[in-house]
């Protein structure tokens, strides 16, 4: 099997077969709403792909795929409240469509529901391991969100701290999806570790790519205007690297632009992008991204007991995510 | 053992030995804050009491007691946000002391932490059962909170619906604490069912007592002014029963007072209390409470494999909670 489109469809069918139809609708309707908003379903597909590396009966991993997708959407619901984000995937976020209390409570029930799905796995000897991995991932994601909030108020965030933050907030769930899928398939412990390390490094590379494209991407290809992160004063890898390399005059300019919101947006984006170019940030970012990507593929190649065609699919999927070229 | 004070102390020692000291402090300090605000520690004591009914080594149930207490406090953190409650146990609620985002995120990590504690139980063959009971309880508590929110906007709530709501919001966690303790002790399934039914009925009786005392209690004994529920337009058992029994003129008075907040509070409490007395609500409430209490004790007496002195302690604890006399 190991065909991404097929696995995606398998998951979508399972999602459709398991709606939240119970009462009270005020609690469960928002769960259906966010779960049906779409998205690439990347994380559940990773669960299924990881399972499929080691075993035939991929449908057995569907409850774990569901747990991971519910968890991901739970974080979107609560994060959107914390970030006061009105939109999610181009539609009203849950707390915008309903209200904040609904967002909190429906999110809570989603988090509990993740564990209900983990219990559905027909591998009870592995249950302790599955719940343990899931908990560690979930806790790290919360910690990542907290660091993200903390960093907004700080002016002395280091690149190492930033990488630790995106590792928790983004990469851990990618790694965890793969680890959970492989654990459900009762894969060898060593292979699970390599898959997980692969996922973590790909997750970091993916975020670096995301940071890169937001400023230096081709708006036509990326599908949105560049400079969004700069306008929002987000301290991404680009800015942190620039601060680390900047000469005093450039640093003062960076700090001035980042200290306020009263600048003309177009001018601010242009000026800052220029400084980033002067400091060679585009190339440096792609180099670091490449390092994480290389490290990821080293772990992927170290996996022993998996089907080669599955490994090839994971490599293809990674490249489509992090970009073959920038 | 089975001495309530000793079990309480055992739990408090365990709590003190397991603080949330890890980084980021913005996430975990609020967890320490709410967990150390005090309270009777009723639910963890119930876990320990239930375990102690069947086995000697009560310390083995401490992680489950912790899971239940963390869960209870998680609901307080998120409910206080939803209810915009500035105080909790006479101190600033978490979102008041910190902010709403902190309340949401620290609450989330607490909910995940419950499952970390369930994993610490040295009874892996029972893990699936423990997580399953915990999930069902947790989901019901969320549903209870949703019904409570829904009922505030409705004018046609029936007494049956109200009982279902308090069953979910309050009684389920009492029942669940007992079921989890007994399950950890690997008690016979039938006894677990009776303990759980005992807890559910005591929980409902406890809430009825609470409703009763809020309006008809002796302020000296209860420790607060009566009439709080009436001032807040809370549709408690008292009011719902009164609406069901009221003659048209009384019903109109009830509805008028409940339709607004522009009344003199003292006059409103006096008038409504008078109507409740005219309709014999105090006696009827205590009768219904007694029915739940009797049902609870029938289940308690049906437990077979437990130590008699433990059963006696549970009975004493219940009576101290729901009141020997009103």
Count of distinct structural domains of chain A:
2
Shape of chain A: globular
Under CATH, the topology of the largest domain in chain A can be stated as Farnesyl Diphosphate Synthase
Strand content of chain A: under 5%
SSE-based structural type of chain A:
mainly alpha
Radius of gyration of chain A using CA atoms only:
21 Å
How many DSSP helices of chain A? Answer: 16
The end-to-end span of chain A amounts to 30 Å
Short structural description:
Chain A is mainly α and 326 residues long. Chain A has helices at 4-17, 25-35, 42-52, 62-82, 94-97, 100-119, 127-153, 159-184, 189-216, 219-222, 228-231, 237-245, 248-258, 265-278, 281-301, 308-322; strands at 87-88, 91-92.
Secondary structure elements and pairings:
The structure is a homodimer of 326-residue chains.
Chain A: H1 4-17, H2 25-35, H3 42-52, H4 62-82, E1 87-88, E2 91-92, H5 94-97, H6 100-119, H7 127-153, H8 159-184, H9 189-216, H10 219-222, H11 228-231, H12 237-245, H13 248-258, H14 265-278, H15 281-301, H16 308-322
Antiparallel strand pairs in A: 1-2
